[in-house]
Amino acid sequence: MNIAVCVKQIPDQSVPGKLDPSTHNLVREGKLILDDSDSYGVEMALQLVDRAGGGEVTLISMAPNGEVSGLRTALAMGADKAVLVSDPALAGSDALTTAKVLAAAIRRNPFDLVMAATESTDGYTGTVPVQIAEILDIPSVSFAKKVDIDNGVLKVQRQTESGYDEVECPLPALVSVTAGVVEPRYPSFKGIMAAKSKPVDTVDVAGLGVGALGVGQEIVTVRAAEERASGTVVVDEGEGYQQIVEFLESIKVI
Amino acid sequence: MPLSKIWVFAEPSESGISTTSLELVTAAAGFASTVEVFSYGVGSEVGQLLGDHGASKVVVVTDLNGVLAGTGVASVMAQRVPSEAPDAVFFASTPEGRDAAARLSAKLNLPVLTNVVNLSIDGDQLVSENAIFGGSEIVSARFTSSGPGLYIIRAKSFAAESKGGSAASVEEVSVGDIGSAGKARIVQSHVEARTGPKLDEASVVVSGGRGLGQQESYQLVEELAKLLNGAPGASRAIVDAGWVPYSYQVGQTGKTVKPTVYIACGISGATQHMVGMKGAKNIIAINKDADAPIFTIADLGIVGDVHKVLPKLIEAIKAKG
Ligand SMILES: Cc1cc2nc3c(=O)[nH]c(=O)nc-3n(C[C@H](O)[C@H](O)[C@H](O)COP(=O)(O)OP(=O)(O)OC[C@H]3O[C@@H](n4cnc5c(N)ncnc54)[C@H](O)[C@@H]3O)c2cc1C
Ligand SMILES: Nc1ncnc2c1ncn2[C@@H]1O[C@H](COP(=O)(O)O)[C@@H](O)[C@H]1O
What we know:
Largest interface: A-B, 80 and 97 residues
Helix content of chain B: 25-40%
CATH superfamily of the largest domain in chain B: HUPs
Oligomer: heterodimer
Number of domains of chain A: 1
Bound molecules: flavin-adenine dinucleotide, adenosine monophosphate
CATH architecture of chain A: 3-Layer(aba) Sandwich
């Protein structure tokens, strides 16, 4: 069982984000970290390969400036190797371009399954995984909350607006997972040491051999949203509920 | 009308067509002279409802046989785009809507604008708005490439309005051969039973988060919601923890709600949660941490323990009868 896991390396989300005033691209300076959303895919892939009794987990990432810190975290969790696409030409790529690049990177190694997260923390288009599946011409199951493989058949519980569907699908296929699908492990000290010598195959756009990559959309303006004024904040001394009752009465809910 | 034709991917619901889809049809009818809908899992009776909201035609894909709806309908749309040339296609920000938009985008090499919360016309072109950084900034964007613009639009961005139009014509089509994408099949569907008003339509929403401490405490949220004729909701933290089903989730990846009052109990107010409830008319928050971000948008904030405040609140409301 060989699994390609898409992992995005993103700016630390505890630092407020900003846009470059001239290009309107997200400023990505400083160290990038593994997107939490993708740690679930990494863990799920490690467990599936383990259950299958062998195979490889290959990380796939597109990031500027040859960034590998997020990849090292996922390698330390136990992934075997990584393909990193890094090229200044990719700055400001939209979701479709990203999907084309990632699909080409995935093709560099044999795979039975592609994993991704339902949406990234900083981009949250939620379209990249299924775009990848279409480009690779494979079936996709998005919004997975449980994933199993049984006799070469992928079995997924897929979240729907009103519950969930049990979906089955032959391999190769793509699954995008939600948080909560598994509990990601913390890298062990041994894992962190081992990660340092695991192979990272770094390629640029020319090396990938993907055709023309235009971006078909542009940002026109960015403005501050209207702020919602904050109201009254009171410390509960045992009577806080009374304030809520009065508020609900004032808006005629009770 | 600035545009000539917009397509809408519409999802079914118990009442025929989902409210979110009707919002998109209404919005489309404000921008284009012709609105055509692509749907599935519905009968020809939806022609009236959709016509009422401004659509003239409904293409219903009839034989999905377990194929994921987004995938199947996108395949039908892709075959027709070259000859029917819509100016834009609208999708809701739902699992099916995202699947459909992503498949269509990659099939036709068209970019997608996502998380759209507003649309306007500039000249003869649509300009979309989406909120970033937890809603603190609004980005306006448009397409620079040719071909139909694909837009994934968040629920409650537009109001659904019945305009009293005549029934839309209904065309039933077969999904045809959709290749390997069609190999993923639903073998069984599970609907999680809920009672009371629907989360995204209720005028009162009471949501619980990790601050409840344990699954059993969610009962307090349910009880309060019931007393107020509202719907219980949740943060993703407690959905991931398995305390409540995903259909309860409010936020970026869950439902968008715009009730008269939203009561957040033990929820910190992460940007991804606030995106889904900021539009509430009134917000009440109970959190024991005075610095919790939820207080920055609350009309009434109670710094306190949910385990102390909620039982008293429930008793007081019960006492009022
Ligand atoms: C791509 C992406 C999409 C996401 N989508 C969503 C989404 O759709 N919806 C969503 O909700 N989240 C979403 N999240 C997750 C989000 O970032 C937060 O992790 C989540 O909202 C936190 O939930 P919480 O507020 O319940 O938990 P926490 O952030 O852990 O907050 C718990 C709060 O409870 C308070 N508390 C503790 N004990 C008590 C007590 N006894 N009484 C009162 N207060 C108490 C604490 O002070 C704290 O503020 C998403 C994240 C990502 C990356
Ligand atoms: N630059 C990237 N590198 C690797 N994976 C990515 C990248 N962008 C998106 N993905 C994958 O696609 C998922 C959804 O991203 P998005 O469509 O941007 O919300 C992410 O969680 C990743 O699994």
